[in-house]
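To illustrate the input format used throughout this study, we show a single complete record. The first block contains the structure-token representation of the backbone; no residue identities are included at this stage. The design step must infer an amino acid for every position from geometry alone.
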């Protein structure tokens, strides 16, 4: 076994330095000292060119101009994203840390916000509404995927208080589930339900989602600017899905009872 030892004053500008024996460098990528390239599982990345040397196996998406650059690394945003597989960007550790901190703080502050809405709401406005909605929705139990369907909103003919109150009562509770595209097909985790806000967050950072209905899938994509689809990306073995309009990566929102979906506990 090769053991490497470093000190606080170690430098790596000498080819005889012990650091050159360690192939894992920036963000854990494997570095080839002979070629000067990083190996990212499926492709090689040239740090001097700031791009991959071979094309991505997946073509771009409608509405995402940068996604058609098959040699770009992390959508030209290497500070906030990484690409350990060479096929898909993921958020950096700091971004994930910030999201976790935000959720923890929200869980701690929401009880106080609910207790004193008249004092807090004028200060934080819609932010409070979003947090309260997130916490309240997260307590809703998972519904049966095979038989569930979204309720239809009543048509409000006027803007009276009565109509608005009725519409709010009949607005459907949308529950989503963690999914994984398997190329082809997809896996749906029935025991991992998500409320719409957490589902939006996962989708925004490239995670796949399952919605029980097409309407729920479109609703979630609209939270990120709009929906593209439905589509199976030209492969009949893929499950039908939507893509969010403003998201430039390959996130999917699967829906319904497509035979190419595999539901697991």
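Output of the design step:
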């Amino acid at each position: 076994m090769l053991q490497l030892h470093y000190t606080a004053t170690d430098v790596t500008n000498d080819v005889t330095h012990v650091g050159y024996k360690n192939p894992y460098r920036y963000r854990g990528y494997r570095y080839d000292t002979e070629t000067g390239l990083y190996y990212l599982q499926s492709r090689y990345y040239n740090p001097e060119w700031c791009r991959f040397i071979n094309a991505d196996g997946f073509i771009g998406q409608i509405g995402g101009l940068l996604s058609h650059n098959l040699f770009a690394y992390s959508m030209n945003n290497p500070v906030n994203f990484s690409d350990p597989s060479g096929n898909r960007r993921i958020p950096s550790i700091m971004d994930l840390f910030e999201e976790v901190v935000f959720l923890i703080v929200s869980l701690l502050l929401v009880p106080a916000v609910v207790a004193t809405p008249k004092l807090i709401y004028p200060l934080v406005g819609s932010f409070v509404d979003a947090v309260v909605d997130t916490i309240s929705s997260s307590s809703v139990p998972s519904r049966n995927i095979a038989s569930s369907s979204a309720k239809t909103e009543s048509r409000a003919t006027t803007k009276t208080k009565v109509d608005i109150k009725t519409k709010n009562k009949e607005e459907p509770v949308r529950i989503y589930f963690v999914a994984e595209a398997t190329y082809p097909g997809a896996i749906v985790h029935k025991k991992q339900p998500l409320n719409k806000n957490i589902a939006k967050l996962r989708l925004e950072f490239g995670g796949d989602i399952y919605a029980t209905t097409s309407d729920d899938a479109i609703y979630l994509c609209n939270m990120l600017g709009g929906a593209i689809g439905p589509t199976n990306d030209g492969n009949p073995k893929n499950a039908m899905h939507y893509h969010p309009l403003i998201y430039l990566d390959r996130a999917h929102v699967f829906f319904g009872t497509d035979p190419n979906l595999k539901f697991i506990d």
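Structural context for interpreting the output: Helices lie at 93-115, 117-124, 126-138, 161-170, 196-204, 214-222. The CA atoms of residues 80 and 175 lie 29 Å apart.
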